[in-house]
Amino acid sequence: MKLKRVLQLYTALLLAFLYAPLAFIVVQSFNAAKYPGAWRGFTLEWYFELARDSEILQAAANGLAVAVLSATLSTVLGGVAAYYFSKRGSSGAADSFFYAPIVIPEIVESVSLLMLYYSAGVELGFWTVLVGHTAYNVSYAYVALKPQFKVTSRSVEDAAYTLGARPFDVFVRVYFPMALPGIVASLLITFAMSFDDFVKTAFTTGPGFKTLPLVIWARAARGRATTELNALASLMILVSLAASYVYSRQVLLAKKERFTGGS
Asked: Which CATH architecture has domain 54-261?
């Protein structure tokens, strides 16, 4: 009983450590003071100010465009590779190849990409950022999807072929539904990593293309970290929690259908 209380206290402290800074940001987003600190009263002004900030809105649109495309491309490319190598059996060399970008420091990859772009004479901007993010995120998609393809029983595939299914039909009607949780996880992870990326974006973008992390850093570095940024962070937290909840619900429903046979 004593151990149980210790574990409960530990869990409560851990959650407080994780979420207290986020809660502080959310509370401060309603503070009438221009800069975070002493409470000056409740207001929604910073959310209206955020909606009028053209630089923030443009940076958000840029980041969303890169993140959506990068997540889609990474999941497709990583998924095809994961499917291929999961069917080949032993693929230690391939796994090492895909795991390497995850453990290599991001600053090293970013500098390498920048040198490559300069050597090729490529103009930095949207496309160079997209290529940089996708090249990095493919590895995460591969890691998320390979176990999903690998757990599918070979007998299920053989049964589908015996019933006259073509390879494309087997992939779409057998492997794809079973890999759907991994696909959703891959999309969410790679989207979040791309939208939130600062280092790789800073090294691969040009002067006319900015994303939210770059704008936020520039303002904070110049002493312009106003309460408006707290409002922006609060909205991002809300979207993240909503996405996490939807994904968790989908996973639970998928598990329930699997155990109940879809009834």
From this structure: Orthogonal Bundle (1.10)
Pairwise CA distance, residues 240 & 230, whole Å: 15
The Cβ of residue 153 has, within 10 Å, a number of other Cβ atoms equal to 10
pLDDT tens profile 192-247? 899 989 999 999 998 889 999 999 898 887 776 777 888 888 988 888 888 778 77
Distance between CA atoms of residues 220 and 191, nearest Å: 24
Q: Which two tokens stand for residue 125?
A: 């901007």
Cross-strand bridge partners of residue 31: 42
Question: Using one digit for the tens of pLDDT, what is the confidence trace for 115-157?
Answer: 999 999 999 999 999 999 999 999 999 988 888 777 665 667 7
What is the rounded distance in angstroms from the CA atom of residue 63 to the CA atom of residue 201?
A: 10
Indicate the burial class of 22 (C-beta count within 10 angstroms; 0-12, 13-18, 19 or more).
middle
Place of tokens 């999903």: 148
Residue 2 has pLDDT above 70, yes or no: yes
Structure token digits, residue 130: 């997209």
One-letter identity of residue 11: T
Question: What are the residue ranges spanned by the domains of the chain?
Answer: 54-261
Predicted TM-score of the model (pTM): 0.81
pLDDT of residue 255: 67
- What would the DSSP string read from start to end of 72-123? HHHHHHHHHHHHHHHHHS--HHHHHHHHHHHHS-HHHHHHHHHHHHHHHTPP
Check if the beta carbon of residue 101 is closer than 8 Å to that of residue 109: yes
- In contact, 53 and 228? CB cutoff 8 Å: yes
Question: How many helical (H) and strand (E) elements, i.e. helices and strands, does the chain have?
Answer: 12, 0
